[in-house]
Amino acid sequence: xxxxxxxxxxxxxxxxxxxxxxxxxxxxxxxxxxxxxxxxxxxxxxxxxxxxxxxxxxxxxxxxxxxxxxxxxxxxxxxxxxxxxxxxxxxxxxxxxxxxxxxxxxxxxxxxxxxxxxxxxxxxxxxxxxxxxxxxxxxxxxxxxxxxxxxxxxxxxxxxxxxxxxxxxxxxxxxxxxxxxxxxxxxxxxxxxxxxxxxxxxxxxxxxxxxxxxxxxxxxxxxxxxxxxxxxxxxxxxxxxxxxxxxxxxxxxxxxxxxxxxxxxxxxxxx
Length: 271
Fold this sequence. Notes:
The protein has twelve helices and four strands. By secondary structure, the protein is mostly helical. Strand 1 and strand 2 form a beta hairpin.
């Protein structure tokens, strides 16, 4: 692919500022080309059935090994390293054999010699044209990383680094983090780590955040966002595009969150 941003940036920079201007133009052109590529990245592309198994495997391996790395590398005071793992496993209700595989991957990620990029980059290569799967991966990591209602700054920094490896922007990270915070207000966690649906007292702002909307969105925009997000997070579609079947419950929970948020906004607005 020809990188027009770099070419135009260098040319204009040189005309306006000589060699220093050309270098600045090259840098700005690089950012423009990268931003354009991200804008063109589809949320989903059709997955070749022959590639589906490998994609699901890369997702599963990256999910639990990165989770272990984050837990061990940025452990808050008085935190059980396995709390993050147990929280996700309890949410998924994994069968015993899959449970053991997840624990083994988690322990692998905890090892001092664990190479983060050697796991994340193959996962990105497999999923790079499935933007929504990349976002779901980051959602799972953020969900696991929260401890006592807070996200440790060290864990946040590690996940920001993972975000960069996945060629996601800081704006993407902040949006997903905002969604996770909002979703936490729609539920409470028992000490066992299980998530139980609870009604929200007020706080319709959280419902807007879950639908990635501003509070002044029109009724039509709200309905469109609800339909779009419901379609994007449909469990069968996600599995067909690379989500491991063992993680199907996360997609089901997500669609329930979206429906709850939509119904809450409708009840407040009376439409």
